[in-house]
# Entry
Amino acid sequence: MNAWLAETTSKRRDKLRIIAEILEIAKNGTLKTQIMYKANLSFAQLNEYLKFMLKIKLMEKVDNRGKDVYVATAKGVDFLQRQSEITELLKGDDEHPKNGVKIPPPNLLRKS
# Structure
């Protein structure tokens, strides 16, 4: 297995996957603490992600009865959709990510 493929199949989440999880949680609006618990992030980690995501407008913070509610923007929902499509493209028939190389069926392989 090459290093890139091993990296994509590890149990650790990469930053894009964490961003996607946060956006999924916040699609309909939610509180910061709910994002923290559902995404399994520390307070410090969550603050860094939210700061970044607010800056690039994947999320917005709105006031709801005196509480800050975080909501995915249209750009955030678009990111979530595209990330999902890419994840699906990288899955093989056995549901594990692959490196994009398609192997033809054995009956189509040339015998030399």
